[in-house]
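Q: What does the assembled structure look like for these inputs?
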Amino acid sequence: MASLIAILDLKGKPLILRTYRDDVPTSYIERFMPLVLDLEEEGQQVTPCFSREGVNYMHIRHSNLYLLALSKRNSNVAEIIIFLHRLVSVLTEYFKELEEESIRDNFVIIYELMDEMMDFGYPQTTESKILQEYITQESHKLEVQVRPPMAVTNAVSWRTEGIRYRKNEVFLDVIESVNLLVNANGNVVRSEILGAVKMKCYLSGMPELRLGLNDKVMFETTGRTSRGKAIEMEDVKFHQCVRLSRFENDRTISFIPPDGEFELMSYRLSTPVKPLIWVEAAVESHKGSRIEYMVKCKAQFKRRSTANNVEIYVPVPDDADSPKFRASTGSVQYAPDKSCFVWKIKQLGGAREFLMRAHFGLPSVRADQDAEKRAPITVKFEIPYFTVSGIQVRYLKIVEKSGYQALPWVRYITQNGDDYSLRTAIEKSSAPSVPM
Amino acid sequence: MSFRAGPRKGENYELSQDLNSEYRDKRKDAIKRVIASMTVGKDVSGLFPDVLKNMQTDDLEQKKLVYLYLMNYAKTQPELVILAVNTFVKDSDDPNPLVRALAIRTMGMLRAEKIIDYVSDPLQKCLRDDNPYVRKTAALCVAKLYDLKPELVLENGFLEQLHDMVSDSNPMVVANTVAALSDIHASVTSQPDHSPDDPAIFNVTTSILNKLLIALNECSEWGRVAILGALARYKTEDEKEREHICERVIPQFQHVNGSVVLAAVKVIMIHMRGIRREDLLKQFVRKMAPPLVTLLSSPPEVQWVALRNINLLLQKRSDLLQNEMRVFFCKYNDPLYVKVEKLDIMVRLASDNNVDALLSELKEYASEVDVDFVRKSIKAIGQTAIKIDSAAERCVNVLLDLIATRVSYVVQEAMVVMKDIFRKYPATYEGIIPTLCANLDELDEPEAKASLIWIIGEYASRIDNADELLNMFVDTFTEESYPVQLQTLTAVVKLFLKKPDVSQGLVQRILNTATKDCDSPDVRDRAYIYWRLLSSDPAAAKGVVLAQRPPISLSRTTVSPALLEELLSEIGTLASVYHKPAETFIGRGRVGADSVQRKGLDLVDDQLATQKALQTVAAGQQSENLLDFDDVLASDSQPSGLAATTIIPQTPAAANLLAGTSANPLDDLVSIFGGGGMTGTPSAPQNPLGELSFGGDNGFGSPINSVPPSQLGASSVTSPVQTQKPQDDLLGLF
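A:
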């Protein structure tokens, strides 16, 4: 429950605010930034929520904005924080970018949305597709008045009735993101696969869908034996359209999909993954004059796959200058704003291996030598037609009253997660143990 | 128009002209400009009548803007709001449900005395509207009305109507009805003098329960949160019912919305309490783990909320997540507040099997740039050493590696941690003392210095040049901070008791300086006590100063068991992330002794109640305080008072008790002696002597506390159960 929600700029000035309850005066918004600064000054962490004089401040950051909710009660903070994130995503879908400028330009519609998304401090509708049906950017013609879509209050609150397509099609994207942490000795410390099944649904009417995966638990509970590999998903999350009790009972994924694009489910596997793209850097640092890198990159997946748009970010000291690069493939750029250089390889074939060398100058005088950041090497990539986990869509059954035929299309892709990083060894000790 | 007294020119005048324009577009544009001015904080309340004229329109967007304006300024222009009533009432009859809902929603927000009485009729109609969208809006409007004028809700029978609406055919209406009833319930029960059979109290009955369980699977994510909240309050009758609820709620773990997951966890944690079937409990805990881990892939703020809650859950069920430590490893780009919580949880999950992985991670963190994080990582190494005996040596080696880096703050933090390890494993790692002493010159923080001095004093007999080392500190005695002074004093006395021949002069000098030139009463008092002891009975001095210290251990809980249960019933709320009971932060005064007592703690007398209150609050404030004692909590339900007294609590009661003391618990004890202590009730102390060892082990204000079987030093002293000679001497001192 929130009494008030405001979007603030970096200085803490409210750009737009909406009061839902009377118990917290709007003047408390202006106290937020000073409180944050006080906390920072006292060397304390600024946590997403804190309490002062009986008022609770709950906030999130989104680029250069704060989204702040205030409350006087012992509110459900998980609900409020997640609501604030939802507000960001709804506004982003409406205006592409959510920033000071777009808020100022669209205040009317933001007020409308805030009115619709929350009532008396309780979140209501946060599905942006449904909201877009009755809160639109063009003002309505006077003759035709919009009405609340049935969906807002239906049991099926995510789909309107009467959708028609000439060609009924479904596209499934199975996307797996690999998060991985390799320590300086070359051991994988932590790895996980975050998978997502995204759908683009162009189906008429109210279709009933059933999705079959090579889910090990399902095979076990139904007593069927699988041909080929079955995977064990550790945790599965579903879009609200999926019937959870059904899944709990017999692992059937059955649902009436929303129209258009949405994420049907996500899953997590913590089976150990070996690094698909292995990078190691030998660093030779001559304090006060230069620093040299030799980076090796190896594609550790099958020859028939190819990784696209590989980007390897190797951190360098903040004050490195005059870069010189030599790479056996791809291109290398210095990104001083990120204190790293980026090695880009458009296409990296499976089981291939490449080398690159970098040379930087270092200033002869150094301010403070112990404040040396040791950021890890990070890698971005995309491997199409391939999933690390081995997940497979066995079938997608589509049943609709009118009995049309619809074809599902499935595509697989594996990519880096938000944390695919390889730690570098401490400089000067000429990096890893593997001979180069 | 007589009431328009505004200026004849300027922005507002222009706006007012446009608002009264004959062209529709111009009027609408003017309204937008008014709202724009309102948004940037300009006062446009003077335009109230002009804006009001534009209320009757077919343009929905314009209507919404006017309503928005009314919501903002109704309070400042109460006598004018009445003019809007007609339109509102008309709108609540509009053929378009969107308009009807909008009207009823806005009317509830106007919060002007005058208009309230006009709300009843339209609300009555809207509650029975055909359209569920209108009904769900009307349901919340009842809660709004209750907030403003409870009598009105009661008189019009709106409460009964809400109760009927729990059986509505539409799950969203059910959800909002539950939200409204719960909201009303919360505001009634927050009143201190509410009667238990106030009609506004929302009791979840068995018939409601079944309706809620059905609606749960069908309503939107936010509706589920509301319904799960009500399910958590249901008083179950028997075990079967509890199992039934748990089984129906568990599928919600698969929901993508983290607040639904946490709300489901809350319901399970509450109803699990009455379930005795071990296999079922194990199954629930097993199913709870994966969704909690998945929450760690959310945005950082959500992660933080999840981590704070996981921390609580682990205090209750240490078997939850026992194989999942690696998922808590910090990511390089995690915000600091997330990293700190992860560290805490990692130490909680540390075991023989994963300690190597943990140590290598912690060592990695200790070489990062953020000083705060580095320090906390080093602390975590120390906590691991204390938690897992078999890994202590590996921890010490890591610490030695870190000390070898000679980075000032790393060395200092490692020194503090080392002292704790020496306390836990006495006489095990003496070999490294020379290495520690070699870093003496690098120390400039009081806590690090005090730690090293404590180590020197403790092992004085085995350090050849202990007297030289301590001499250095005695030379600069008056310039040091009080904690360092206290430690120096104690260390020198220890040295004297161990090697009297080499330190006779030293001890004379320090007792002189401390009693004469020192401006801290704590230091002076301690010096006097030592002086008296040494001069009257050296044997007693030995018994006191060199007494065996009780062992330290890592506690499983940071809050008292009763508070933990309370917080587990609040999973997902602010209380659960602050680790404090709601009364401490929602404004109606801070937690007092009696409010804690009301929570059904088994308290024998008021003194204990106060102690418990102090401890509860203090423990809550020191939520990062992992090193705490648990033996006491296990052995009996006696409150562990010292935890409360070593930390400087912020409650008024505590402030009285500890008035004017520094971070030295010795003084806390003394002040207890001076206070109610002497007349305190005897509470069967077992080892008062251990408590009164003036070895100064507690003198760091460090998170480690000793584990005295009885904490209330005060009552201990007045009831000499185990009469021992040195203790008698001590009593003589007072």
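Residues 277-362+375-384 of chain A form a domain with the Immunoglobulin-like fold (CATH 2.60.40.1170).
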